[in-house]
């Protein structure tokens, strides 16, 4: 029978099944970071338990780390969390890329870059953006700290078999439209809980044409549509991305693995519990104006009127969001003034994202009212960008160029958007207070954020670029 | 974790949908390395203003619900981050039951691991509950019922495995250790391939 990739991977990982119980699922890769792991390690210690397979774990420090002056972390509690991870990894034998390690970076950036992320794997991490790794054709999902402890102890999780959903992206992306715009358009069209209870597979010709980096951006935000995991069947693009990476086999063994990976792709005629479709031709550069990722629209639009919503709960949510954001219904999105720009996060801080943003800012200056920072996704990304001179382009334009980490995506460190200020951000969440108490986030692609930094307000990247070449 | 079966309480009505985990527990409180002590930070930025004074019209600052152990909200409760600090804060504050028409997957799971009972009722049922003043309910996990002071009875579904875990307060890891032979066999088979 024709099977989806989701069913193939799931079936390969069931350790034990019994009527009336969830499946006991084997976990191939467990990624860890400093914020959601300390209580799990403490649980092991209290119960005198070991890490069952430290060789299948990989830890780094990303959420809390400063992006400058790393020698001295002033926040005592943050420092404690960081040293706790170091101590736990030493005690339990878990491989760690600590703050000074050349591989340090956002966990969802370094997993793929090191080749730890591979097609067909089950991957978990105490972080909801673990869905990123699905771009490779893996079942990857975020878990809570109790589940982190469970995986550390047993290398398994009890999981109910999820429903499957196909999100088909047909057609072709227009000029200036990025992967970020596809996923924001999907969330806006279908809602932030459309994926609850599902694992999503993204299919269609528009997805096939995307690079691995772009596929990661899309899978990364599956959770913003409610889906714990989102994936894309592996193809030649996947195989070529992984070839030569540190943790993948070499030579003959790689070719054998590659053949196995490609065979995981969903079979022709496989049936999903649900299928939805969106046309890439309709998608324009996207920005959010509200306080969850579905509250957004194409940049050429105005903020919707409250009366546009039929349900009372939607009307009150809309009013509450606009009050928080300090915005008026009906105003053009391009009239929103921006005073902070953040280019970073597990959604959009890969080398290709920085290259795209650099093209936009090259030879220009950041608007005097804007504070703009670039936070590369990993130390490796940072180094590669510096080799290409990308750091100089940003610095010359007036951006700050930082060390890698989660930074202003969730503002656990010192990188905070001041209360009441608007931030053009390449991150994934625009919840109230996400980038600092009272902060106002507008999600968008790296090119759009870069253009907003130059102009001091939200701009349509298509118009910005055409103007610049004198069309 | 603490077993849970019968809970009697006035409900705390949180009239909002899409309540995300960033609101339940804000990031500045995630730096602690303990599981306890998060209750005082629950819904912090909705409960307190910039000077840390209570915001009077927020429901958690309403004296009538001071001792409530049942929180009721609209759709998609607990969306966003996987932070288990969210259910830790809810539990530490004193809630044992959360009722909503739907929950985000990770949050729902995290509740189960901490002895918090997440109950899914229909949108209409939740709206009926939220429309009443100082509504007292009796939650019974064994019979899968929520019974209101006015005699209304609401039935809810729950996975039988998760029900058993909650009723007994079992440690899941100890139970999984009983499957060690299966795990070992799975690993050996994987190695052989």
UniProtKB/TrEMBL annotation, chain A:
Q: Aconitase/3-isopropylmalate dehydratase large subunit alpha/beta/alpha domain location, by residue?
A: 7-456
Q: Which reaction does it catalyse?
A: citrate = D-threo-isocitrate; (2R,3S)-3-isopropylmalate = (2S)-2-isopropylmalate
Which InterPro entries does this UniProt record tie to the protein? 3-IsopropMal_deHydase_lsu, Acnase/IPM_dHydase_lsu_aba_1/3, Acoase/IPM_deHydtase_lsu_aba, Aconitase_4Fe-4S_BS, Aconitase_4Fe-4S_dom, IPM_dehydratase_rel_enz, IPMI_cat
Q: In which pathway does it act?
A: Amino-acid biosynthesis; L-leucine biosynthesis; L-leucine from 3-methyl-2-oxobutanoate: step 2/4
Name the coenzymes or cofactors required.
Answer: [4Fe-4S] cluster
Q: A GO molecular function for this record?
A: 4 iron, 4 sulfur cluster binding
Q: Which GO terms describe its biological process?
A: L-leucine biosynthetic process
Coiled-coil zones:
none
Task: Give the cofactor note.
Answer: Binds 1 [4Fe-4S] cluster per subunit.
Q: What is its EC number?
A: 4.2.1.33
Domain of life, per lineage: Bacteria
Q: How does it assemble?
A: Heterodimer of LeuC and LeuD.
Q: What does this protein do?
A: Catalyzes the isomerization between 2-isopropylmalate and 3-isopropylmalate, via the formation of 2-isopropylmaleate.
Output this protein's name: 3-isopropylmalate dehydratase large subunit
The protein's organism comes out as Psychrobacillus soli
UniProtKB/TrEMBL annotation, chain B:
EC number(s) per entry: 4.2.1.33
Q: Which InterPro entries match?
A: 3-IsopropMal_deHydase_ssu, Aconitase/3IPM_dehydase_swvl, AconitaseA/IPMdHydase_ssu_swvl, IPMI_Swivel, LeuD
MF terms from GO for this chain are: 3-isopropylmalate dehydratase activity
Q: What is this protein called?
A: 3-isopropylmalate dehydratase small subunit
The protein's assembly and partners: Heterodimer of LeuC and LeuD.
Give TM segment ranges: none
Q: What does this protein do?
A: Catalyzes the isomerization between 2-isopropylmalate and 3-isopropylmalate, via the formation of 2-isopropylmaleate.
Task: Identify the residues that the record assigns to the Aconitase A/isopropylmalate dehydratase small subunit swivel domain, covering every copy.
Answer: 2-122
Supply the enzyme class, top level. lyase
Task: Please indicate if the UniProt record lists Lyase as a keyword.
Answer: yes
CDD domains assigned to the protein according to its UniProt record, in alphabetical order = IPMI_Swivel
Which catalysed reactions does the entry list for this protein? (2R,3S)-3-isopropylmalate = (2S)-2-isopropylmalate
Listed pathway(s): Amino-acid biosynthesis; L-leucine biosynthesis; L-leucine from 3-methyl-2-oxobutanoate: step 2/4
Say which family it is in. Belongs to the LeuD family. LeuD type 1 subfamily.
């Amino acid at each position: 029978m024709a099977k989806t990739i989701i069913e193939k991977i799931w079936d390969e990982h069931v350790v034990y099944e019994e009527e009336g119980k969830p499946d006991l699922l084997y976990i191939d890769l467990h990624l860890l970071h400093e914020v959601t792991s300390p209580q799990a390690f403490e649980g092991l210690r209290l119960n005198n338990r070991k890490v069952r397979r430290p060789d299948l774990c990989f830890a780094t420090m990303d959420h809390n780390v400063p992006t400058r002056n790393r020698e001295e972390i002033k926040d005592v509690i943050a420092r404690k969390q960081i040293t706790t991870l170091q101590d736990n990894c030493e005690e339990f034998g878990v491989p760690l890329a600590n703050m000074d390690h050349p591989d340090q970076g956002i966990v969802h950036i370094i997993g793929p870059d090191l080749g730890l992320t591979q097609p067909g794997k089950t991957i978990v991490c105490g972080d909801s953006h673990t869905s990123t790794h699905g771009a490779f054709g893996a079942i990857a999902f975020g878990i809570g700290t109790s589940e982190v402890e469970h995986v550390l102890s047993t290398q398994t999780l009890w999981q109910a078999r999820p429903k499957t959903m196909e999100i088909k992206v047909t057609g072709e992306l227009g000029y200036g439209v990025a992967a970020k715009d596809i996923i924001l358009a999907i969330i806006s069209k279908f809602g932030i809980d459309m994926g609850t209870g599902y694992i999503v597979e993204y299919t269609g010709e528009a997805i096939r044409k995307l690079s691995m980096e772009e596929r990661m951006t899309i899978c990364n935000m599956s959770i913003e549509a409610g889906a714990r995991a989102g994936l894309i069947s592996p193809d030649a693009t996947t195989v070529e991305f992984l070839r030569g990476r540190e943790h993948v086999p070499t030579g003959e063994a790689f070719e054998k693995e590659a053949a196995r990976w490609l065979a995981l792709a969903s079979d022709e005629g496989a049936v999903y519990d649900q299928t939805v479709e969106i046309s890439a031709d309709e998608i324009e550069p996207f920005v959010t104006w509200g306080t969850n990722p579905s509250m957004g629209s194409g940049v050429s639009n105005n903020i919707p009127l409250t009366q546009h919503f039929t349900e009372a709960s939607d009307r009150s949510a809309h009013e509450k969001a606009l009050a928080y954001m300090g915005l008026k219904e009906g105003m053009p999105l391009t009239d929103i003034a921006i005073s902070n720009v953040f280019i970073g996060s597990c959604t959009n801080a890969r080398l290709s994202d920085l290259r795209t943003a650099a093209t936009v800012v090259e030879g220009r200056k950041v608007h005097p009212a804007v504070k703009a920072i670039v936070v590369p996704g990993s130390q490796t990304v940072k180094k590669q960008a510096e080799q290409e001179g990308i750091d100089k382009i940003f610095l010359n334009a007036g951006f700050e160029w930082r060390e890698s980490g989660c930074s202003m995506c969730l503002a656990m460190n010192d990188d905070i958007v001041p209360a009441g200020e608007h931030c053009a951000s390449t991150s994934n969440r625009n919840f109230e207070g996400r980038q600092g108490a009272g902060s106002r986030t507008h999600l968008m692609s790296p090119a759009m954020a870069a253009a907003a930094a130059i102009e001091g307000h939200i701009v349509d990247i298509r118009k910005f670029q055409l103007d610049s070449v004198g069309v | 974790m603490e077993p849970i079966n019968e809970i009697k309480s006035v409900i705390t009505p949180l009239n909002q949908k899409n309540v995300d985990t960033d609101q339940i527990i804000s990031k500045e409180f995630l730096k602690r390395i303990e599981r306890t002590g998060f209750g005082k930070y629950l819904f912090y930025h909705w409960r307190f203003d910039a000077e840390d004074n209570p915001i009077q019209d927020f429901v958690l600052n309403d004296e009538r619900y001071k001792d409530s152990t049942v929180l009721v909200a609209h759709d998609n409760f607990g969306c966003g981050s996987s932070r288990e600090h969210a259910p830790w804060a809810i539990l530490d504050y004193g809630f044992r039951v959360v009722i909503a028409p739907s929950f985000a997957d990770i949050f729902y799971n995290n509740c189960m691991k901490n002895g918090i009972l997440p109950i899914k009722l229909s949108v209409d049922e939740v709206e009926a509950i939220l429309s009443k003043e100082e509504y007292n309910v009796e939650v019974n996990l064994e019979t899968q019922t929520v019974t209101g002071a006015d005699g209304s009875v609401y039935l809810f579904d729950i996975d039988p495995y998760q029900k058993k875990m909650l009723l007994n307060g079992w440690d899941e890891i100890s139970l999984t250790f009983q499957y060690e032979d299966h795990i070992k066999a799975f690993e050996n088979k994987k190695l052989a391939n």
